[in-house]
Amino acid sequence: MIDEIKYNSEGLIPVIIQEYKTNEVLMLAWMNQESLEKTIKTKQTVFWSRSRNTLWKKGETSGNIQIVKEIKIDCDRDALIIKVDAKGPACHTGEDSCFFKNI
Amino acid sequence: MIDEIKYNSEGLIPVIIQEYKTNEVLMLAWMNQESLEKTIKTKQTVFWSRSRNTLWKKGETSGNIQIVKEIKIDCDRDALIIKVDAKGPACHTGEDSCFFKNI
């Protein structure tokens, strides 16, 4: 199934991070193949930072790691959901979710 | 707030569609400014189809429209959540959610 993932032209796939108990969406992040493999191996989320162009282990400095509970792929194989047990706020602002503003 | 949205280099923003009662994620779709404006105006989701390069009113042929309940934007202003009342399956396969496969 992992071999069937369709990465975009930059080698990335969008990943919806969802709290596994409440289903609250915490963030939308991006992964490349290496970060997905590290996520699966370590059972903690590792993203690709598009602003810094580097792997980014979630919680590496903040301690707010995310333990992987479940990974799902969509029908087009070009988006993922990872359900996590979040050990602290997902957002750098200190909010639980990055989606804290209404339009 | 809408004026502050950061579209990507193709003029698109990823949109997480979430069922407003259960918080189940139904799909990850894409919008350009026009489709977002139509979504807000009509209170039904209108996406940008990247495969067909055209606006795509959800449910136009299937009848499975999505009534907009809430729109949220993330801290980076480059991703949206739209919570909807889904009048039928979100996925073209007939599944409620496009994320029906586990990895």
Low-confidence parts of chain A = none
How far is the first residue's CA from the last residue's CA of chain A? 36 Å
CATH topology of chain A: Ubiquitin-like (UB roll)
Overall 3D form of chain A? globular
How would you sum up this structure, described in words?
- The structure is a homodimer of 103-residue chains.
- Chain A has 103 residues and is mainly β.
- The first copy, chain A, has one domain (2-86): Phosphoribosyl-AMP cyclohydrolase (Ubiquitin-like (UB roll), Roll), CATH 3.10.20.810.
- In chain A, 10% of the residues lie in helices and 38% in strands.
- Chain A is built from one helix and seven strands.
- Chain A has one helix at 33-42; strands spanning 13-19, 25-31, 46-49, 54-57, 66-73, 80-86, 101-102.
- In chain A, the strands form two sheets. In chain A, strands 2-1-6-5 form a four-stranded mixed beta sheet, with helices on one face. In chain A, strands 3-4 form a two-stranded antiparallel ribbon.
- Chain A is globular and about 35 Å long.
- Chain A starts with 12 loop residues before the first strand and ends with a strand.
- Chains A and B meet through strand 1, strand 2, strand 5 and strand 7 of A and strand 1, strand 2, strand 5 and strand 7 of B.
- Strand 5 (66-73) of chain A pairs antiparallel with strand 7 (101-102) of chain B, so a sheet runs across the interface.
